Amino acid sequence: MKSNFRFMRTGILFYIILVFSGCASDTSETKTKPDFTRLVDPLIDTHQSRFDYFASATVPFGMVALSPDTKHGDLWNSGYLYDDKYILNFSHIHNAQTAGIPVMPVTGPCKGNLGIKASKSRFSHEKETVKPGYHKVVLEDYGVTAELTATCRVGMHRYVFPQSEEAHVLFDLGAPVGPTKMLYSWARKSNENEIEGYSVMAPTFRRKKPFMVHFVARFSKPFDEFAGWQKPENSDTNILVEPEENIVKGKGSGVYVSYNNLQDGEEILMKVGISYVSISNARLNMETELAHWDFNRVVEEADTKWNEYLGRIGVKGGTHEQQVKLYTDLMHTTSKRISNDVDGSYSDWTGPQPVIRRLPVDKNGRPERQFFDGDGLWGSQWNLNILWSLIYPEYGNWMAETFLEYYKNAGMMSRCSWGGNYSYVMVGDHSTPLLAALMSTGRATFDQQMAYTASKKNAFPGGIRDRAGYESGANPSGGGIDWYIDLGYVPVEIADRGAGYHRGGTAMTLEYAYQDWCIATMAMLLGKNVEAEMFLDRSENWRNVLDTETGWARPRHESGKWMDGFAPVSLNSRFSAPGFIEGNSATYSFYVPQNISGLIEEMGDRDKFIEKLDSSFTKAQPYRFITPHGEHGTGWVDYENQPSCSMAHLFSHAGAPWKTQYWVNQVKKISYGGTDPYSGYNGDEDQGQLGALGVLMAIGLFDVQGCVGKDPTLEITSPLFDKITLSFPSTTDRKQFNSFEIITSRKNQDDIYIQKAWLNGEEWNDFQFPVSVFLEGGKLELELGAEPNKKWGLKQN
């Protein structure tokens, strides 16, 4: 099913030089306006998604992500869900663990005190327009046409009302939004057309401390009344109240502004600026980013920002659906959210009391980089890290600098960033592969010595590897890093130690070993050769959990004995097999990106390795190479979740690039190819990770090692398009852009096998080529055919 707005083909190529001072923006003039946004469909796979998944009225990485909500209550199956019949509100923040400022325009008597569902409205997709930077929908129960757009930190609303004796705009500031409950809210009428206030978010399972969002809402027309609702003492029911000294406050409270005797078609505009620092900063954000009332101008500016971001990848050829999916994938790679203000201020909640800090600013007072609120990077070495290193380095550096801010502020680099606070999501230190990739590719703009020191700290007791998934508290032990150092692996007994989740010792061992290799690479690049050797030795700890008799990674006791009752896929638990994290031995056995040749040797030889891997894909194909979310222990391959995301590319390393070409094409088409509201990402897009993987599969580039290494390489697979032009900042001058072209020739669209290749005009018979060659700019030409050329890609150039 296609969305209701019209898509248009594009073959236009744009070379864009960007200067980023906040959200994605361009200060240069472009002669031709790009139209990549017409190939984006935000409705893809919205039938059953996470609260932070859907995006419409936002700009790339925008603090404000303004869109309708049809369901609240959890991270999953929350936010905007395609099959729901009612809109509950429009809220301004859609992140995994932060949310807030829900508003709803209504007509008739105010029912805000009766709960957020009491003011819901029917809507239909036939009367809805959705595209990046803009959302339009008719609230059928009220006859109100609502339009939404945004700058980075300001949401803008345009409401067209029917003739109404009374109409209201509700702010249910104390209501639960998405997965987030509110502890307290406060709002004040500041003048005849403005209100201001804040909501205090309650801690969540993943974000252990409260967090605050402040707002200022300004209206284009003075309102006639300001009032609200509160919960009296010893009562469970909110009642409508008149404000005291223009203030309404309390747990579960909310406010509304009223307009009397509106004429049919009367238009009211509203701007809502937000800040995680203060009300005054919310006002500063609004007045800096949106001083005018020209709604259409904001829509056009948002469209320009999106086209600048999407335009770094230009394609010709392929099907219309493949182009739609490519640019929708790219849209989702912007799902991390800026959380600092226009002056660089952000809230640090890592200590006993929150502290307001400020990022470095330029001579004009604008932040030189941004601080993100976003999910972690577990597994991002096979998606976002590669895309950031190649094409979008400034955003990768923003993410890296965010983790390093935690190190500077509180002494330990974070796994993710939710509400300015540590959140020990998943296991290990999955920020280190990003730091290593940016350093390896010459992209790092951060302090590399500090980055190495922070990563090194996390690799020993006292660092973040002490902690299992979501393990908080003063004395963590569920990460097993002490056992990993002493034994060379994390044993089965870790399941009984510590207070966290994801205590799968075999999976921990494999992930820690790869992360050790990343630290070794960082050490080598900094000339720390002795420490590099130590981490290289540790990176071989994967051998300690690979049972060469069975040929599978296997849980091992502290005594050294292999765990009994082992099978490659889960026999009992559907979520994880014992010893593994959201997976099983069938997937984790191939998790040795730092030494694939060593893994192949330990599994027997190349033929046995290929046979084992091929068997897994054959068994997984009837299930579309995925498992339902929460059943990760049951699949032979699971492209719904991170540990599997490199598996199809491993055939190349065993001497069968043609099998990689085949299976990557199958996964892309069957698992990630959908362009309707019921397919495309299989539920868990994880803030851009599957979008980034989809982009890499579509353009035919990858790296199993995550662009980490002293001389990192890129792996070649079969692109979907006839011509791809990648435009990216130069490594020597970030204001200058280089371009790399990938050109394919084929007789039929189904020709997927590489017959010959030429790199910068010279015949190329290796499935890999140096990242450094890519970053200099150039051309890769591929001849594709219907039958595999089993000799291509095997010779070292």
From TrEMBL:
GO molecular function: carbohydrate binding; peptide-N4-(N-acetyl-beta-glucosaminyl)asparagine amidase activity
Residues spanning the signal sequence: 1-24
PROSITE patterns per the UniProt record, alphabetical: PROKAR_LIPOPROTEIN (PS51257)
Alphabetical UniProt keywords: Calcium, Signal
Cellular component terms per the entry's GO annotation: cytosol
Glycosyl hydrolase family 92 N-terminal domain residues: 39-275
SUPFAM superfamilies reported for this sequence: Six-hairpin glycosidases (SSF48208)
Cofactor(s) this protein cannot do without: Ca(2+)
Listed Pfam families: Glyco_hydro_92 (PF07971), Glyco_hydro_92N (PF17678)
GO biological process: carbohydrate metabolic process; glycoprotein catabolic process
Subunit structure of this chain's protein: Monomer.
Protein name as annotated: Alpha-1,2-mannosidase, putative
Organism lineage string: Bacteria, Pseudomonadati, Bacteroidota, Bacteroidia, Marinilabiliales
